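Fold this complex.
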Amino acid sequence: MPGVSMTVNGKAVSGEVEARTLLVHFLRENLRLTGTHVGCDTSQCGACVVHVNGKAVKSCTMLALQADGAQVTTIEGLAKNGELHPVQAAFKEHHGLQCGFCTPGMIMTAVDMIRRLPDLDETTIRQQLEGNLCRCTGYQNIVKAIHAASLEMKGARA
Amino acid sequence: MYQFNYLRPKSLDEAKKLYENNGDAKFLAGGQTLIPTLKQRLAQPTALIDIGGIAGLAGIKVAGGAIVIGAGTRHNDVAISADVKKSIPALAHLASHIGDPAVRHMGTLGGSIANNDPAADYPSAVLALGADIKTTSRTIKADDFFTGMFETALDEGEIVTEVSFPIPEKAAYMKFPNPASRYAMVGVFVAKTKGGVRVAVTGAASCVYRESAMEAALAKAFTPDAVANIKVSPGNLNSDLHGSAEYRAHLVTVMAKRAVAAAT
Ligand SMILES: Cc1cc2nc3c(=O)[nH]c(=O)nc-3n(C[C@H](O)[C@H](O)[C@H](O)COP(=O)(O)OP(=O)(O)OC[C@H]3O[C@@H](n4cnc5c(N)ncnc54)[C@H](O)[C@@H]3O)c2cc1C
Ligand code: FES
Ligand code: FES
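Structure:
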């Protein structure tokens, strides 16, 4: 089986995979990083979103081998020294989750959109969430949480 | 997914050789169409030749009155390119509305036009702007490239390397997205070019096409009113659970009108 190496949440990892192994399965099954979820079979739900070389991608729609040599960040890599990332804290504060299944993907998508678009408004947040489905919340509090986090992170940078 | 071999060539020559020596191989670019297809076991290639590692296949440059975009350029990079936004804002707008952010971080221009999904966005821009498609063996005119549903003029093993979009006087793209998939129910790309007005329609029929009655009317007067009363025949249009042919025919006129009004 082909070998694959990458950096996941700052740690060098490697393993053997089948060519057809998806990145999400490498993360969940080889590395036991089960925070990244699989919610669909059709690349539509976004529960699997991780960052590859700093960009949000659907890890169910990428081969592990395509990420060979890449820097990967998963939901497990966001909190630092036991402290939640501002987006995680905002989801908690604003009740941005119910069952929590979509949450890792929502948060990874949110962190990516805040990085790309520092001046987020509600409409933009909703457009940017196009690839993330939530079956519980009705999105209202997810949008609120992302907006609050973006303002807080902007404040922190200023 | 069925089993396959994964190969990652460093050059186009190597990619071509691997293709010739690997039976039923397929090129892999952003994977945003091919991987979902493989997951559904709708294809069974023996090898995937990942062209994502070939240097020089991605990039955007302005040259000779055109914007030249490498086939490996991701949708998001087209959407945020200062050069594209300045010279062909309609193209940046189109790219920024493909799928969702994660799809736009991976999906490529070359993959989109090689796939030629009847509801894909890029083919309408390529056709309306009269772009040239450069491949590993020749240059193909937009009017000759899209030959049918998921069909193009590309030969076996031929790789799209770049697309050259002549800068128009004015252009705009208006899409009525399918509310679930964001692919075009109907998308209309209108361009006022040196060679005349071109109107390309995607999503409505089995393949992107030019709406010649609208082109003729807009050549006389480039105003929304010029197309407002043109009735598109539903005869050859798609009818499915998302909308009837009559509905799509109506949308073509509405989207064309809006595109002309928005053209810059
Ligand atoms: C959830 C979701 C939503 C989407 N929404 C939209 C949308 O709204 N509008 C839209 O237009 N598209 C949409 N797409 C499709 C997306 O734009 C794809 O990225 C694109 O169609 C294919 O590009 P790719 O680079 O991912 O190609 P791949 O999936 O890697 O390849 C597609 C095909 O093209 C061939 N190919 C790739 N590159 C080349 C090349 N340079 N030369 C020759 N052949 C090549 C491959 O062999 C394969 O057959 C969506 C996809 C997903 C998953
Ligand atoms: S699991 Fe990746 S998009 Fe649904
Ligand atoms: S919180 Fe349950 S799917 Fe979003």
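The pocket of FE2/S2 (inorganic) cluster (ligand 3) is lined by residues A 97-102, 134-137 (CB under 6 Å).
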